[in-house]
Each structure stands twice: as C-alpha cells, then as structure tokens.
Amino acid sequence: MSGKKIPRSADNDYTREAAAERRRFVEEFTGASLEHTGQYSFDPGILPGNIENFTGVVQMPVGFAGPLLVNGEHAQGDFYVPMATTEGTLVASYSRGMSITRAAGGITTTVVDDAMQRSPVFIFANARDARDFGTWVADNLEGIRAAAQTTTRSGRLRNIEQYHASRMLYLRFNYTTGDAAGQNMAGKATYAACQWILQNYTGNLVRYLLSGNIDTDKKHSQMNTLHSRGKRVIAEVTLPRALVEERLRATPEQMFAARQTSQLGGLMAGAVHNGVHPANGIAAVFIATGQDEANVAESHASLNYVEVTPDGDYYYSVTLPSLIVATYGGGTGLATQKECLQALGCYGDGKARKLAEIIAATVLCGEISLGAAVVSEEWVSSHDRLGRNRP
Q1: Which domains does the chain carry?
Q2: 273 an active-site residue?
Q3: Rounded to whole angstroms, how far apart are CA atoms 133 and 135?
Q4: What's the pLDDT at 154?
Q5: At 35, is the pLDDT very low, low, confident or very high (cuts 50, 70, 90)?
Q6: Which member of 13, 27, 292, 293 is catalytic?
Q7: Backbone angles phi, psi at 14, to 5 degrees
Q8: Of these residues, 13, 27, 87, 313, which one is catalytic?
Q9: Residue-level pLDDT at 185
Q10: What GO molecular function annotations does the UniProt record carry, in alphabetical order (predicted)?
Q11: Contact call for residues 301 and 224 (beta carbons, < 8 A)
C-alpha cells in the first residue's frame, strides 16, 4: 500500500487538469487504464456540491422508452422517457407497457401528498418529562415554524408528528420543499428549529439528536409507506379485455390470478411491497435525470392493486408512497441529466410533481409488461433475445 493521499488542488480542484492528475495517480497505483473514464464533454467547474475528488465519468447507456401517454394534473400528453440502464430488455419492456396503456387511452396520475422529513429525538429523565415536552411542542408550533423558516425560501414546515417511546420523544418534522428533493433543506431547517427549542424550553431536557432515524432517510420503512416521504403519487389505467388478449396474450382473469399468487409468494418471503419490479424503472429514470440514486431505497416501495371490472376489463393501479424526486438542485443541473429532464419538459421550477407523475406512469407500464410476460411465458425468451451480451 502506498499510503499517499489522492491529489487535490487547494486553488481550484474542479478542473480538467486536476481530474487528469488524479487519473494518473490511480493508473500508476493500480495499473489500470482510465482512458474512457477521462472522456467527458462538460466543464468540471459545474461540479462543486455534487462530488469530491472528481476524476472522470462512468458512462451509462441511455435509451428512450415511449411514447407514454399521461393524463395527469401536472403531466399531460405524450412523453419519451429517458432510462439509463445496462439491463437488456428493460427499455423494450417498458415501451411495450407504454404502447398498450396508450392504446387504452393513457394513464391517469394523481399526486395526493408531498412532504420531506427530518426527525430529531429528545431524551429526558423519564417518560413524564417527555410527555410534558410534547405538550409544549404542540403549544409552541408557531415559534418552532418561524425558526425553521429562517433557513429556507422554498421550504415550509407543515406539521410535526410526535412518537413516544420509553423516555424519548421522536418528532417527525414534515416540510413542503418546492421542486427540490429537500433532504438537506429539511435537515438545516430542523437544526435551526431545534436550536430555538433548546433556547426556549425550560423543562428537564437531558439531550437531543438531530436525527432519531424515524424519518428512515434512504431506507425503506412502514412509516414512510403509511405517512409518505417525498411525493405520494398514484397511477391507474383500465385495459379493455380485447386489448389485453391481443397485446399481452393473456386474459384479465389470468393476469388477476397471477397477481394473487405472486402476492402470496411475496408475503411468504417477507417482501416489503407487492410490486413486480418498480425499482427497475425508478432507478433507470433516476440515473438519467440526476436524482439521488440512493433514494430508490424508499421510492421503490409500491402498493399495487388490480381487479377484473364488471365489464371484464383489467384495472391496474400503482401507488408510490415515497417517491423522492427533484427538478431543481442536486444532480439535476449536470450536463446530460439536465438534457434528459429538458426532454421531458421537467427541468427547473414548478416541475417536480410533473416528473413524479411521469415516473409513476412509467412504473405502471413496467409492472403490466413484466407481469404479462410471466403469465404468457415470454419472460425467458425476451431476455434471451434482447438481454444476452455474453460472447
């Protein structure tokens, strides 16, 4: 082991020269070539706040699926959806789902909740002190809200949930965050609110932690499934029987029976949701559009519901209770990610709910397509045809 530090420039570390120096350092130490890693088209000067020790890029293939027809409140019309993936058949499968839902008149999407959390925990000598503190918090919400608002122009503290356990009180601060994902915003605002609490509460507080982990940041939880984190968005469609039989080569009854069977299997396995593969579509769009990819952990949890209608058609809905997306800030302003957002008409202010509706509709298409491939026994043949690149 060399023990040498990775080269950094004290003057300006976000230059092509600084990146090239780091590539040479890694190449000399490892013997590996970073030729392709060093090929990129943007100015490294745009990267502060996105990465440290910038050395180059990892290029992901991007394909567009579509057209996707969305009948949303924020997303309306046809969209071609960028998906960054290395999994063959993925774009083709989502495109198939988009084709059949478009033939059915499109997908209806609805955002029903929108909030980002930070959850500090306050620790006391006993449970009664914690209870009394909870009463004080409820009585002083406006003062707490005013302190939080001093740190942000676009975020707003909506409400504070309280959860008692032992001699602790966990507070779940809920913020609206505009078009940013809002994790950092919520953390900064909650820190300011907690400082105000410490200055103004005169009871017997022992200590506090800014994160008590009940917000379950970048982890799946039942809390976020029930209470939402990010956007809670629902996508739904009714597929006519004739369309299901012609395009998916199955009947609504066969599709419904397969859902029942797979849900039982997922229950036995202890799966955290009853979706088919929502993480596939979400991750692919997240990477293409500059989202925080770790948020797939929360965002992929889905609540799928299907039924055969009295007319014999097939109703399918997907609820994403914790879809965390942004159209401003983070990685959304980087070169290729910005282009992909612009292709969706989703870059900048006022577009986060539109992007959420497009992603939810995309997930629905993938659920329908893969579910049908399993029923019609086309799953393996499709992967053999499109997903094998081994020599």
Answers
A1: 10-59 (no CATH), 62-113+228-386 (3.90.770.10), 120-209 (3.30.70.420)
A2: no
A3: 5
A4: 83
A5: very high
A6: 292
A7: -110, 65
A8: 87
A9: 93
A10: hydroxymethylglutaryl-CoA reductase (NADPH) activity
A11: yes
